[in-house]
Every structure is written in structure tokens, then in C-alpha cells.
Design brief:
Number of helices: 14
Number of strands: 15
Largest sheet: 5 strands, mixed, barrel
CATH topology of the largest domain: N Utilization Substance Protein A, Chain:P, domain 4
Radius of gyration: 35 Å
Number of domains: 4
Helix content: 25-40%
Strand order of the largest sheet: 5-6-7-9-8
Order of helices and strands: HHEEEHEHEEEEEHHEEHHEHEEHHEHHH
Distance between the termini: 79 Å
Shape: rod-shaped
Strand content: 25-35%
CATH architecture of the largest domain: 2-Layer Sandwich
Structural class: alpha/beta
CATH superfamily of the largest domain: NusA, N-terminal domain
């Protein structure tokens, strides 16, 4: 039994996850290549390796002829009789080949064939491993900056975090561990090319799935997400269990769950709101914490008109229009926000255009519904103060 070869194959299989069968085939092909390099042709060469003992047998099938014209393909009756006494002209005789007879160059070529096969299989294993993780989040270690791009080590392969997939406010140091979203895995001659992102909205979604048990088991469902990387994210959730509060499950006790995600995103703010099938209610939730006076949503045109108190207009729009912009992305509606004064001064404005009676809504099937609610006063004031501080710091 060839114990050394068996041990080497087991180590390769364990460390590089390359199957022994693939390695056996590589060895067989390398011996055939060595024979071809030594004798000039190998059309009649066969190699057999015992998978249990790793003992191998290399032979050439030669035809018995009266006059030998090609020693590589043919054999004389006298030489054939030494191998098989019953052999006669026209028979095929197996002639054993001793690999020790191969020259140095042939041996080096055989070694190259084996190493090339191992490298190919290793690249294939790594590609398949990370291709399965495409559109998922993995943890990597920052290695180095390559110009404006960053090289991230994912364990068995390196990924590239391009400049346009980086958050401008984030700055990483080498050896720092970060979570990244795998955008794409390409198979190239030099190995798998893995592209990752820190700005993709799915990164936030995957982080919630890993942090919130209720999302992982399907009790709470993420319906929509809108993100401006490095600044703020709005996420709409709903519960499939009436006894489970979707927003509360995502926030966690004392905000433990959402805070861990905020820390991973380097302080990015996250607003979690309840999903509602009624577009009017959904838009109202999406504009939180602003207080809404009236909402009219048109599902056909995907537009919505919103009226807010005069003192809530800046809060509803947000700094540089961010709150309204994220709410529009979250709901899929183009939202037109007006203060009460602006709405009353608008030509043809009538409050009844924004307000529908519940019975009329049910009977005639209006696509929009008005529902007057008021946000928490302390929450709104806190939000306004936060926006004011950020504006002062920027100025």
C-alpha cells in the first residue's frame, strides 16, 4: 500500500476540499502526459489506480505483429510470448510501463499537470463556496487600500470593495473586521473575483435577518426598505402573528437589537415603521415622526398629497428633503407635502378632496383613505432638535 500518497491525498482533501477522486484522475492524466512526452504518443496507454491502496498500474496496449514497424504501438510475437504465452498475431497485449524510466523533463511535466489540476479545483471550490453566498452578508478583514478601493479578506478568498460601494463617512483600518454584502461572484482564469458592498439596502435587511429571530423564522416580515447609506434608513415591517409587535421585535429590549445594527453601520440612523396595506396609512407611517393632518393616495398614478401643520412642514420634509425622499422610496409613491397654509392658498383646494368617510370608502372602493392621527410630541421635538443640530454642524 502506498501510504505516503494516501496521506497526501487525504491532507489535500481535508485542507483544500478537493475530492480524492479528482486527485486520482489528475495523477492518471499526469502519467499519460509523461508517457507522451517520453515516447511521443500515448494513444494506447492506460493508467489504473487502486482507490483503496493507492497502488497504480501503467501499461500500453500493443498489437502483436510479425514485423514491428512502430515499437510504441506494436510488439513482436517473441516479446509478447514473454508477457502472455497464449498471445498470437493480431492479439492485444498489455505491456507494463515503469514510471521510473521516464526522463526528468517528462517527470516535471507530469508534476505540472498535477499542480495545475489542484489549482483549478481549488479555484472551483472557492468559487462555488462564495457563489452560494451571493446576495448574502459575510464578515471580512480589511487588508489594504488599493487606490480608492479596499481589499477585504473573506477567509479563503479576497474581495474588492469598490469606491462607489463604500460609505463616504466610513473609514477603516487594516485588520479591522467588517460585514459586507456580496454583490457578485465572477469566475475568472485567475480565480473568483468577488465584489462586495457597504451601501446596498440589502445589507441592512440581511443584518436584521441575522439579528432578529422573528424575521429569521418568518413571524415578522420586511416589506420595504429605503436607504441613504451613511445617513438614514427607513424600513417597513409587518407581523404575521397578531400577538407579536413587528416594530418592537426589531427594536429589541432597550433598543438592543437595532443598536447592534446601528453600531455595525457606524452610527447610521434607522427608522422602523409598521407596514400597512392601505397606502394612506403607509405614507403616514413612512413620514413619521411628523404629524399628518390629511393624506390622499392615488394607487393608479402612484402619487400622494399630504397636508401637515405649518410647524411640522420642515420635520416632514427633513434635512435636505431626506425624510420625504426616503418615505417616497419606501412606499413607491411620489409624495407632495404641503403645510396647511400652503394647501388652503392653493387654487381649488378643498379639504373634502383629502378626507373620505369610512362608509363611503367601503361602498365605493376609494383607493385612498384619510385618517387623522398625531405623532408623539416628545418624539417629534427630539427629531426636530436632532435635525437642527446636524444643520448647525454642517454649516
Amino acid at each position: 500500500m502506498n501510504k505516503e500518497l494516501m496521506e497526501a491525498l487525504e491532507i489535500l482533501e481535508r485542507e483544500k476540499e478537493i475530492s480524492k477522486e479528482t486527485l486520482f484522475e489528475a495523477i492518471e492524466n499526469s502519467l499519460i502526459t509523461a508517457y507522451r512526452n517520453h515516447y511521443g504518443k500515448a494513444d494506447n496507454v492506460k493508467v489504473e489506480i487502486d482507490r483503496e491502496t493507492c497502488d497504480y498500474y501503467c501499461y500500453a496496449e500493443k498489437e502483436v505483429v510479425e514485423e514491428v514497424e512502430d515499437p510504441v504501438m506494436q510488439i513482436s510475437p517473441e516479446d509478447a510470448a514473454e508477457i502472455d504465452p497464449t498471445a498470437k498475431v493480431g492479439d492485444i497485449v498489455r505491456v507494463e510501463i515503469r514510471s521510473k524510466e521516464f526522463g526528468r523533463i517528462a517527470t516535471q511535466n507530469a508534476k505540472s499537470v498535477i499542480l495545475q489540476k489542484i489549482r483549478e479545483e481549488e479555484r472551483s471550490v472557492i468559487y462555488n463556496q462564495y457563489f452560494e453566498k451571493e446576495k448574502d452578508v459575510v464578515t471580512g478583514i480589511v487588508q489594504r487600500y488599493m487606490g480608492k478601493n479596499i481589499s477585504i479578506n473573506l477567509g479563503k478568498a479576497d474581495a474588492i470593495l469598490n469606491e462607489n460601494e463604500q460609505v463616504r463617512t466610513e473609514h477603516f483600518r487594516p485588520t479591522e473586521r467588517i460585514k459586507v454584502y456580496i454583490l457578485e461572484v465572477r469566475n475568472t482564469p485567475k480565480g473568483p473575483r468577488i465584489l462586495v458592498s457597504r451601501t446596498h439596502p440589502e445589507l441592512v435587511k440581511r443584518l436584521f435577518e441575522s439579528e432578529v429571530t422573528e424575521i429569521k423564522d418568518g413571524t415578522v416580515e420586511i416589506m420595504s426598505i429605503a436607504r441613504e447609506a451613511g445617513s438614514r434608513t427607513k424600513i417597513a415591517v409587518r407581523s404575521n402573528n397578531p400577538n407579536v409587535d413587528a416594530v418592537g421585535a426589531c427594536v429589541g429590549i432597550n433598543g438592543a437589537r437595532v443598536n447592534s445594527i446601528v453600531d455595525e453601520l457606524c452610527g447610521e440612523k434607522i427608522d422602523i415603521v409598521n407596514w400597512d396595506e392601505n397606502p394612506g396609512n403607509l405614507i403616514q407611517n413612512a413620514l413619521s415622526p411628523a404629524k399628518i393632518v390629511a393624506v390622499f393616495a392615488d394607487p393608479d398614478d402612484k402619487t400622494a398629497k399630504v397636508v401637515v401643520p405649518d410647524y411640522q412642514l420642515s420635520l416632514a420634509i427633513g434635512k435636505e428633503g431626506q425624510n420625504a425622499r426616503l418615505a417616497a422610496r419606501l412606499t413607491g409613491y411620489k409624495i407632495d407635502i404641503k403645510s396647511e397654509t400652503q394647501a388652503k392658498d392653493a387654487p381649488g383646494f378643498r379639504y373634502e378632496d383629502y378626507v373620505y368617510d369610512d362608509e363611503e370608502y367601503d361602498e365605493e372602493g376609494y383607493d385612498g383613505e384619510y385618517e387623522e392621527t398625531y405623532a408623539d410630541e416628545s418624539e417629534a421635538e427630539s427629531y426636530e432638535q436632532e435635525e437642527a443640530v446636524e444643520s448647525e454642524m454642517e454649516s
